[in-house]
Design brief:
It is a single chain. By secondary structure, the protein is mainly alpha-helical. It has one domain (11-67, 80-132): Zincin-like (2-Layer Sandwich). The chain has helices at 11-22, 27-30, 46-52, 88-98, 102-117, 122-132, and strands at residues 37-41, 62-65, 83-87. The protein has a three-stranded mixed β-sheet with strand order 1-3-2. Helix 1 packs across helix 5. The longest helix has 16 residues, at 102-117. It is globular, with a radius of gyration of 15 Å. The two termini are 21 Å apart.
């Protein structure tokens, strides 16, 4: 459903969209995301910008930080959870540039980052998307 906005959607609004998107993930996969924290920020922090070699903070829509399920061991004890970050301003910029549905963009970015949680590379996800089309 295409939503109309009179003001740019807030961080809270994008968090709500992300929660709704999570609810569309099949239960068998969703159960493997328990403990993954989803956060929406306006932009990536400076350290992330430097680590990723970004030319602009608008270059990154989302990011997974954690240990992929394929690299985890039952004997590993992690002090912090895995995170999926969605970056509001770059997402809104992309939305304005493309005219795509904002909820679809948020869902696609979220699913892409959760794919990294499952151990998929960008190339793996691109191949899967092409096969689905």
């Amino acid at each position: 459903m295409m939503m109309r906005f009179t003001t740019p959607p807030s961080i809270e609004h994008l968090e709500q969209m992300a929660r709704q998107a999570m609810a569309t993930i099949p239960p068998a996969l969703l159960s493997k995301t328990v403990g993954v924290v989803i956060q929406v920020h306006d932009f990536p922090d400076e350290e992330t910008e430097e680590d990723m070699g970004l030319e602009s903070p608008f270059d990154l829509l989302g990011l997974y930080r954690g240990v992929a399920l394929t690299a985890k061991s039952f004997s590993d004890v992690r002090a912090e959870p895995d995170f999926v970050y969605l970056y509001r301003r770059p997402i809104l910029d992309y939305w304005c540039d493309t005219g795509e549905d904002l909820e679809d963009i948020v869902r696609n970015v979220l699913i892409h980052e959760i794919g990294h949680h499952f151990g998929l590379s960008d190339e793996d996800m691109e191949r899967l998307e092409n096969e689905a089309d």
